[in-house]
């Protein structure tokens, strides 16, 4: 599994579900703790309020699944797919992703703080209104990603590419423009001032006369 931020250990599971086909199922209201899901098909599943705590997901398919107010707390995801998956107001605090695919992922609100996504390919994903404090996006590919109104305070973004990303309304204080690629990123005026300050520039709105 990917290294966990602050060297926190991966969860220890006590039971296993392997090779099950849950495609199209409604997982609403269910609860699982320290379960290892291996090669489980969650394609097209719906989920309102289900909670997964310290679970492991390996080689699982979440494509086109829809999750609302669900919890995936301190979970580990490895070599799993999230194509066109939607997570609305979900809680992923402390979870880690390794070698997963996220094509057309949609995240609306929710808490993704302390999540590990190092090297993740999130190109063209849409993340809006989410809390992602101290998220690990080291080396992540975020080209053309929508990251609007996202709390990225304290995020790890060393080596990340944010080219052409839409960052408007987000906290960009953790983005070092000398350590991350931000060419063509879409930003608002306040963010422009933040980046200018990070580069050591002094911004004045008074124009000398004479």
Short description:
This protein has one helix spanning 189-198, and strands at 15-18, 31-33, 35-38, 46-48, 51-53, 56-58, 66-68, 71-73, 76-78, 86-88, 96-98, 106-108, 126-128, 146-148.
Q: How would you describe this structure to a colleague?
A:
The chain has 210 residues and is mostly beta strands. It has one helix at 189-198, and strands spanning 15-18, 31-33, 35-38, 46-48, 51-53, 56-58, 66-68, 71-73, 76-78, 86-88, 96-98, 106-108, 126-128, 146-148. It has a 6-stranded parallel beta sheet with strand order 4-7-10-12-13-14, with no helix packed on it. Strands 1-3-6-9-11 form a 5-stranded parallel beta sheet, with no helix packed on it. Strands 2-5-8 form a 3-stranded parallel beta sheet, with no helix packed on it. The longest helix is centred in the C-terminal third of the chain and has 10 residues, at 189-198. The chain is elongated. It starts with 14 loop residues before the first strand and ends in a 12-residue tail after the last helix. The model has no long low-confidence stretch (mean pLDDT 93).
Give structural attributes.
210 residues, mainly beta, six-stranded parallel beta sheet, five-stranded parallel beta sheet, elongated
Order of helices and strands: EEEEEEEEEEEEEEH
Distance between the termini: 64 Å
Strand content: 15-25%
* Backbone shape: elongated
Largest sheet: 6 strands, parallel
Chain-averaged pLDDT:
93
Spans where pLDDT lies below 50 across 5 or more residues: none
């Amino acid at each position: 599994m990917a290294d966990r931020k602050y060297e926190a250990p991966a969860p220890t599971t006590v039971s296993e579900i392997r090779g099950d086909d849950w495609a199209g199922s409604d997982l609403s209201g269910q609860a699982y703790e320290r379960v290892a899901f291996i090669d489980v098909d969650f394609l097209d599943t719906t989920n309102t309020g289900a909670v997964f705590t310290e679970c492991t997901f390996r080689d699982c398919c979440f494509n086109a699944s829809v999750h609302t107010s669900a919890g995936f707390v301190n979970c580990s995801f490895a070599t799993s797919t999230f194509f066109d998956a939607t997570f609305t107001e979900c809680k992923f605090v402390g979870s880690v992703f390794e070698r997963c695919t996220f094509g057309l992922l949609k995240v609306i609100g929710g808490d993704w703080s302390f999540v590990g996504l190092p090297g993740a390919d999130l190109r063209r994903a849409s993340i809006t209104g989410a809390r992602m404090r101290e998220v690990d996006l080291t080396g992540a590919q975020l080209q053309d990603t929508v990251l609007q109104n996202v709390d990225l305070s304290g995020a790890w973004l060393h080596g990340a590419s944010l080219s052409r990303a839409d960052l408007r309304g987000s906290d960009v204080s953790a983005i070092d423009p000398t350590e991350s690629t931000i060419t063509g990123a879409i930003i608002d005026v306040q963010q422009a001032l933040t980046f200018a300050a990070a580069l050591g520039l002094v911004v004045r709105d008074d124009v000398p006369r004479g």
